[in-house]
Amino acid sequence: MTAPLTAISAAVVGVIASLAVFFGLHVFFVAGHVQWAAIAIAGAAALALLRYQVGTVKLLLACAIAGLVLSYPGAFTQLS
């Protein structure tokens, strides 16, 4: 009974990893330009989640607010 569940778990992990790479490439590299603000937000989120164990909802809210602030015209989006 454990072999089918192990195979299903491996398939799910593979799909999630594939989606992470796909979305990461499309978020971090837009039209051939590196989006340093998106990379900084992702790095800060990884640090907050793994090192400081911030809650998921708080982390998503903070990242969404940071993305909105940086997306306004004249903000810090022209870092490249």
Oligomer: single chain
Structural class determined from secondary elements: mainly alpha
Sheet with most strands: 2 strands, antiparallel
Beta-strand content estimate: 5-15%
Element-by-element helix/strand order:
HEEHH
Biggest β-sheet: strands ordered side by side in the sheet: 1-2
Span between termini: 52 Å
Number of helical elements: 3
Mean pLDDT: 90
Residues in helices, as a percent range:
over 70%
Low-confidence stretches: none
**Radius of gyration, rounded?**
16 Å
- In total, the number of strands is 2
Shape: flat
Fold and architecture overview:
With about 80 residues, this protein is mainly α. It is built from 3 helices and 2 strands. The chain has helices spanning about 1-30, 35-50, 55-70, and strands at about 30, 35. A two-stranded antiparallel sheet has the order 1-2. The protein is flat.
